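User: Second chain of the day. Same drill as before.
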Amino acid sequence: MEVPVHFVAKLWSFVSFLPFFFLLLILGLLKAAIIGPVVVGIIVIGNSAIIAGLWLAHFVWTYYCVARSKRLGLVLKILVLLLLPLPLALWPVLGVVGSVLGGIGYGFFAPLLATFEAVGENITDKFYHCFVDGTWSTVIGGCIVVQDFTDFCFHSYFSYMDELIEQIPADEKPMDIELLKLPASLLVSLIGVPVDVPVITAVAIWKSPYMLFRGWKRLLEDLIGREGPFLETVCVPFAGLAIILWPLAVVGAVVTAFISSFFLGLYSGAIAYQEDSICLGLAFIISAVSLFDEYVNELLYLRVGSCFPRPLYRRNMCSCPERKKCGDNDKKDLENGREGPYTSKLISQQSRTWKQAIQHYKPVQVWGWLLKSCEINGRILLRDGLIDVKDIEECLLKGNCKKLGIKLPAWSILQCLLASAKSNSSGLVI
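Assistant: Same format as last time:
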């Protein structure tokens, strides 16, 4: 943590801004009180009309597509047909409730935030924009929400359902449920829930003080150093409110961990079904606690790993020594200045869907390459004078990263595409 230069002047600027902040807050609340009900009415009435008008068509077409689908096996198809009335009956209720909540959130916060954005550095005639911004634009935004929802219900939904009745390739098997595996899967799930729920909840409660004090420490450091949420003067009061309400965030995290523990316990049954082994399902029950503990440690910057055991719960999983060996090899490759395996070229095989095509790539390698490429190209552009120190300062201090955050990555990707095209490669040469 570094205290910035002229900290006293910036602190006085913040204190002197407080009266303007409260005036802007009152103005934003008044605009939200006037515009909010209008936006809520537009979204709720529009979405409800779409849901009611297309509900019968959705009901009939969903049943028709599921019944005609070649992608579902007999057992799974019968199960889906028996369970479909429940989500189809709940869809109008959930759609209306979601529209109400979304309309309230958008109709209230959009005018409020637009009021504070109107006093930004690049805004001219701030007094006029404080009253105008977030009024008519929020109403237009509500209409756009209804339009997008209409496109989804009228076009996208039917397109998704049409994919179910398409012919599947000869080498692809339809999805189905093997009834003989269900008893073991249910047994493991019944064991996993009462084991994982109390243990994961206990871990979350045990780590909650760390989250509380480390969060306060980080927020206070950002406040003193004018970083993160405290970078802009307008955001400082909201960020200060975040410091006060941080204990509620910690409580919410514990509640979320408690709820997610049920799904982790139930997922052990899916592991037992997929691997056709009760032992591997029971192993996941133990590993789930270790995975959760390790995730929390990484989130709170605590020690790496977990003190809980993590047995193998997949047949094709490599053991810890093997993972360590692989990591050591990668580390040696980096120290020797060489690229690791599969990092020099990413081959995109012909795939039936985008999802399958993306699975051929290694996201971590792609992100690592992009960051490294941006660094190298950034140094080149800085040397050639196309980027100067002023651009870097604006990005770090003012958040204006249009050149470094958009143009530089786009330039790096363009160079990659040109190099791949010149090399006549079937994939991306990175």
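Residues 7-68 form the longest helix (62 residues).

User: Great, on to the next one.
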